[in-house]
Amino acid sequence: MAIRWSLTVDCADPAALSRFWAEALGYAERPAPEGFATWPEWLLHHGVPEDEWNDGAYLYDPAGAAPALSFLKVPEGKAVKNRLHLDVQAGGGRETPWEVRWPRVLAATERLTAAGATVLREEALQGKPDHVVLADPEGNEFCVV
Q1: In this structure, are residues 70 and 57 in contact, taking their beta carbons and an 8 Å threshold?
Q2: Whole-angstrom Cα distance, residue 66 to residue 142?
Q3: pLDDT for the residue 84
Q4: Phi, psi of 67 (to 5 degrees)
Q5: CB 81 within 8 A of CB 141
Q6: pLDDT tens track for 16-25
Q7: Residue 45: phi, psi to the nearest 5?
Q8: Which residue, 114, 112, 130, is CA-closest to 122?
Q9: Where are the beta strands (DSSP E) in the chain?
Q10: What is each CA distance from 94 to 25, 97, 119, 133, in whole angstroms?
Q11: What pLDDT does 81 receive?
Q12: Closest CA to 21 of 3, 40, 6, 34
């Protein structure tokens, strides 16, 4: 039996980065715990100082199919290439015909750059464009395939 898991991203601004990834993946902010209408209400109840309210942000897949994402504030910035990255499969996967997949990849790339991503490079496979490598607003690399 598989074990449920989530992915945590270290970052400088959890709220801003979680908004980008919510847009990128169609995720939503995790609802406040039961008994609380909002996260600020929960934070106040637990005595969390207001200057710590952006120390974390949490997203989930509203369909319940994909892992949750957490964004945690850390003091250091990103220094080297990611050893782990996300593949945003906006094109439908390599089993989708290239003529259908590639326009989808380009459309998703355009949408994500408008949301704050930066295109790093386009990669080819067998002489045709295959995927685009981007960086999120804090420089974390990911691919649109």
Answers
A1: yes
A2: 17
A3: 87
A4: -65, 155
A5: yes
A6: 999 999 999 9
A7: -60, -35
A8: 130
A9: 6-11, 28-29, 56-60, 68-73, 86-88, 118-125, 128-135, 141-144
A10: 18, 7, 20, 16
A11: 79
A12: 6
The model's pTM is 0.89
d(CA 142, CA 145): 10
Amino acid (1-letter code) at residue 108: A
Q: Which of 129, 121, 12, 2 is nearest to 71 (CA)?
A: 12
66: helix, coil or strand? coil
Return the pLDDT at 1: 84
- Of 71, 54, 72, 58, the C-alpha closest to 27 is 58
Q: Which residues contact 70 (CB under 8 A, 6 or more apart)?
A: 6, 7, 8, 9, 56, 57, 58, 59
- Structural domains of the chain, with CATH: 6-73 (3.30.720.120), 86-144 (no CATH)
Series of mean pLDDT values for 10-residue runs along the chain (145 residues):
90 96 96 93 94 94 95 88 89 93 98 97 94 96 95
The amino acid at 109: T
Name residue, tokens 């690399």: 141
